[in-house]
Predict the 3D structure of the following.
Amino acid sequence: MAKPAILTVDDDPAVLQSIARDLRKQYGKNHQVVPAGSGAEALEILHQLVLRESPIALIVSDQRMPNMVGTTFLGQARSVVPTAKLVLLTAYADTDVAIKSINDLGLHHYLLKPWDPPEDRLYPVLDDLLTGWRRAHPDSDGGVRVVGHRWSDRSHEIKTFLARNHIPYVWLDVDQNEEARTLREAANATAATELPLVLLPDRDPLRAPSMRELATALDLHTTADKPLYDLCIVGAGPAGLAGAVYGASEGLQTVIIEGSAPGGQAGQSARIENYLGFEHGLSGADLAERAFRQAKRFKAEMVLAREVVGLEARGPVRAVRFDDGTEIEARTILIASGVSYQRLEAPGLGEFVNQGVYYGANATDAPATEGQEVYVVGGANSAGQAVLNLARCAKKVVLLVRSSALEKGMSQYLVDDIRAKEN
């Protein structure tokens, strides 16, 4: 499948060359950047891409163009490719037009010209938009495929790891999907212990991989770059990420060690409405990703799929020992390992964990409950957020709470939203 396209439109050849250059520099590895010198030319290109079934992720258009201004072009482009993200490049004098277009056209963002330096004034916005597009189109790049049984705990762990690290994937259930069975046969994965299979482009199949094996195959950062750091943070939840931002912004060489994915428990929330500074709310995944990027901007380093198993004082430094026997040293260590879910003490429940019984609910879990009845046990905010997320797809969601009233452990906005749900 062709790489998702980024279409950029400007009537000034020098500006068009400049924006195309900056887009290729940042996104050329995973996207095809297509320049057009007018709105009419861009519409023709869009129709050609649609005919070739090439996915179109993002359209960036200048506003002041002869014959067809940017807002007119983007309005027509929306009818051709309704799922593409739309961005208007505009001068300061045209910001009122851009703001109006956000409501009238469904414009996703506008950016002021000039956009130098792009690291500050271009890429952060486009990173957000492209991440959102990829989540909505997980099979757009022919990327990761996971073949396994729905009720397999290993399949669930791998899907959760991929989702929480914002890696698009396609899930293929061998019990229900003919393509899954064909792929299993092609890989000669006859033993149950070889599932799940993880299929990556241009690589041999991974057979029931560990999280570290999977992370390494995906080129995630799994090994620290230096032997010694000023600050080592264990855990990449909101507290750990905040510590990384503060430490790295003060010039400390900072590394974050995370066993799974950035975000912690908060990263699993489908919607957080009461976080300071986000009046319309945001998902836990969005919050974690923003914090992660902010920490990286200050040159903090993230090491994934590593478990810290020991600490040792060595004079002025502390050694941090990993589960594979390797270690690093740091002058200061911040433990931000978070909390564990309380376990429900019910006879026989343990054997079904991650095989129909789950502790915590990811935002991506909802589609798997389509048309089914789901039970959520708990009375605090995490349970409330899970109920609202699952209710988008499930036929019925039953919330089981020990206390006499939801208000005793849950924020009022969640209580109100749950009571407004019909299912």
